[in-house]
Amino acid sequence: MRKQIVSGNWKMNKTESETTQLIEELKQQDLKSSVKVFVAPTFVNLSAAVKATKDSGIHVAAQNMHQSASGAFTGEISSSMLLDIGVRHVILGHSERRAYFGETDELLKEKVQAALQAGLHVIFCFGEELEERKSETHFDVVKKQLSTALFDLDATQWQQIVLAYEPVWAIGTGETASPEQAQEMHAFIRSLIRENYDSTCADAVSILYGGSVKPANATEIFSQADVDGGLIGGASLQAEDFAAIVNGF
Ligand code: 13P
């Protein structure tokens, strides 16, 4: 059985006190125990989040990390720094990292390998832009993103990978992929893994959908056969909305 996962990606939102407060509010919510729940606050608030979530069943993910183990990389954060404060998961490849910070598929391949070797689990994001969807190249784009960054991994390393398909045109726009569009792409992604590995590997990987998921549309999206959960931006910043999404399964 694939894991059902809902992760909040808080992006550059919430101070330390707001982080702790939102986690306390989430802990008051009745969250479905069958769903694995993550929050991903910004770097400076990860420690506080780890402490606040202790024994709650809520997990903490980082939003990024550097590919090197240590060294002269001003402003950067390494895998060992994350592990040392109790963070076991990292989001890599978010479209905002790709668009605003120049992260390429080749760089992401390095980051993924560094994270996995350090023992972190990776939530790997990818997805096409609006022009690519319009020109109907979205399947090719996704195939290239996945094959460059992930298809050199061996099958056992996939146990540490969660995929998050996030069409860029649906992020923060209020426009969601239709449940059919999400299912079509998720099924394609799973078929790619099946082709490059095998059915056991493909059937075990959780594939999340991200892009304007809200309480009102979560159930319909999560009910699709190959959608195993969501990566939630805006609606994860409010405890009731996020809980309603988690309980949308
Ligand atoms: P929104 O839910 O705000 O569209 O953001 C999605 C996202 O980027 C999650 O990583």
Characterise this structure.
- With 249 residues, the protein is of the alpha/beta class.
- The chain contains 11 helices and 8 strands.
- The chain has an 8-stranded parallel barrel with strand order 1-2-3-4-5-6-7-8, surrounded by 6 helices.
- Strand 7 (207-210), helix 10 and strand 8 (229-232) form a beta-alpha-beta unit.
- The radius of gyration is 17 Å and the shape is globular.
- Bound molecules: 1,3-dihydroxyacetonephosphate.
- 1,3-dihydroxyacetonephosphate binds at residues 9, 94, 166, 171-172, 210-213, 231-235.
Compute the number of helices: 11
Instruction: Kindly state the number of beta strands.
Output: 8
For the report, how would you describe the main beta sheet? Answer: 8 strands, parallel, barrel
Q: What would you report as the Rg, rounded to the nearest angstrom? A: 17 Å
What is the spatial order of strands in the main beta sheet? 1-2-3-4-5-6-7-8
Unique bound compounds: 1,3-dihydroxyacetonephosphate
Helix and strand content put the structural class at alpha/beta
Low-confidence stretches: none
Strand % is 15-25%
Helix and strand sequence = EHEHEHEHHEHHEHHEHEH
Indicate the overall shape.
globular
- Give helix % range: 40-55%
Mean pLDDT: 97
What gap, in angstroms, lies between the N and C termini?
Answer: 15 Å
